[in-house]
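Memo subject: From amino acid sequence to discrete backbone structure tokens
Keywords: amino acid chain, backbone geometry, structure tokens, three-dimensional fold.
Body of memo: The sequence and its backbone structure tokens, given next.
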Amino acid sequence: MSTSKTNSYKIAVIPGDGIGKEVMEATLDVLNGLDIDFKYVYGDAGDECLEKTGTALPSETLDLIMDADACLFGAAGETAADVIVKIRQEMKLFANLRPVKSYLNTNSLFDDIDFMIVRENTEGVYIADEESYTDDGAIARRIITKKAEKRIIEYAFEYAKNNNKTKVTAVHKANVLKKTDGLFKKVFYEVAKDYPDIATEDFYVDATAMYLITQPESFEVIVTTNLFGDILSDEGAGLVGGLGLIPSANIGEDGALFEPVHGSAPDIAGKNIANPIAMMLSAIMMLRYLGENESANKFEAAILKVLKNANTLTGDLGGLATTTEIALEVKNNL
């Protein structure tokens, strides 16, 4: 697909709370330097929205996201579950993609990490299907369905096939959760039969947590259930220099939302010192989703150049640069 100005997209922009506003502004500044016509429509969601309107996710914001070609989301604070989880459910964004990749000058523990965590987004204990408190404590239900798990596993194999990956690893706890994760493991190997050219393996989630530290270079695509995927991707962030470098995509059949994995970081909000690279990498994932691969490559190359030069880095990477200075430097390297 050409990257001329004839390509126009409506992008829902939800800055959210805290540093979400700052990293979003920096990212849009760089996006505006590309040869693509973006029409931004802004919506409110998050803690500040709750305080202002009485709801963390107004219906008009959800409508705005559903009507757009894609959505860029900054960060949510305490209301994250009421915002992001609800958007995922309402829009049926079943696949959560979280790449873990090592870059130069980023405090990465290894220099050869490059794997994708494909996380099921719509069910499992993470969706907080909790009953009220009982006399003894509280109860949460963990529902795993064959339909949802087959869909996410097929997505993982298709991702591997389309991105020159040779192995898919299933992560579960089927030795203890014999019915729910037992189903996940069974479906994994059923789907794998349709992809004979892709190697398969499966590990327990606790073993995987160790292997991510001891042999992270051995992973290419990890597919797992909701909560396990959330935890492992944050461990992955620790491997490659922190949450300021981990983007994510939420993909459904009729829409997509892109957001950094980090939260609203209220302790540094408003100081213009947040690392915007995770938000920028999320925007690059959006560009690839839209088919704008040439612009995505250009944007990513500009970020890599900034990291390689190491003259303009934020505090989390050992530098003194501001969020705005990172954006300017990336834009100058487009």
About this structure: Residues 80 and 111 are 32 Å apart (CA to CA). Strands lie at 8-16, 37-42, 70-75, 95-101, 114-120, 167-172, 199-204, 221-224, 247-251, 256-260. The first strand starts at residue 8 and ends at 16. The chain has two domains: 1-95+246-334, 109-239.
